[in-house]
Every structure is written in structure tokens, then in C-alpha cells.
């Protein structure tokens, strides 16, 4: 396990919103872009990797109690999504890496802890 803050530092992730919850613990990784599918399958304390950036992402993350949401490939994020992440206390991060590359890196750090 690793905290969102530790992961942010190791992977040089950009914090976009939800800074107050960087102490959340990440237990596993989930990748998905179809929100209804993610809602049904994501587990508590997963780091969710997606390229979706609309405000519904934060609602799904909150419902599933995700540790954080990581937006891959430097996708643009609307202000309304950032504001919602801040309101819900969901760490919202961004990376230039692909979802695949992020998952490999996260798996390495989760398994090593």
C-alpha cells in the first residue's frame, strides 16, 4: 500500500484538486472509462486511472470510495470537475503517462509496500 501523496511524489503527478485528501491509502488500481462499468467494479481505496474528465467521474469516485482519480495522457480537465473534486475531497491527479504505463508503475509501488 502507498498513500496518494507518496505516489504523487514518486511519479511526479500533478495535483489538480482534492489536495486535502492526499493521505488516502491506495490498495489497488482500477482502469476504466465507462462510468457505469467502473461504478459496478471499482473497489474501495482503488486508484482509478481514466481519461474521462467530466464531473461525473468525481461522483463515481466518491460513490466507490476511490483513493484518488488519475487522469492519463494529460487530458484537459474542466473547472467544474476540479471544483467537484475539491468539494468531495477526492484527490484528482494528472499524468502525461498512458493508463497502461501508470498501472505498471502503480502496481510496482503497491506490491513493494
TrEMBL record:
Gene3D superfamilies found in the cross-reference section: HprK N-terminal domain-like
Name this polypeptide is given: DRTGG domain-containing protein
All copies of domain DRTGG, residue ranges: 7-108
Organism of origin: Natronincola peptidivorans
InterPro entries according to UniProt: DRTGG (IPR010766), Ser_kin/Pase_Hpr-like_N_sf (IPR028979)
SUPFAM superfamilies recorded: HprK N-terminal domain-like
Amino acid at each position: 500500500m502507498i498513500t496518494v501523496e507518496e505516489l504523487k511524489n514518486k511519479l511526479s503527478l500533478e495535483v489538480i484538486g482534492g489536495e486535502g485528501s492526499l493521505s488516502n491509502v491506495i490498495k489497488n488500481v482500477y482502469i476504466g472509462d465507462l462510468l457505469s462499468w467502473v461504478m459496478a467494479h471499482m473497489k474501495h481505496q482503488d486508484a482509478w486511472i481514466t481519461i474521462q474528465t467530466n464531473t461525473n467521474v468525481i461522483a463515481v469516485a466518491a460513490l466507490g470510495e476511490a483513493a484518488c482519480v488519475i487522469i492519463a495522457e494529460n487530458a484537459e480537465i474542466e473547472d467544474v470537475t476540479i471544483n467537484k473534486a475539491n468539494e468531495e475531497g477526492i484527490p484528482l491527479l494528472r499524468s502525461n503517462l498512458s493508463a497502461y504505463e501508470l498501472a505498471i508503475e502503480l502496481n510496482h509501488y503497491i506490491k513493494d509496500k
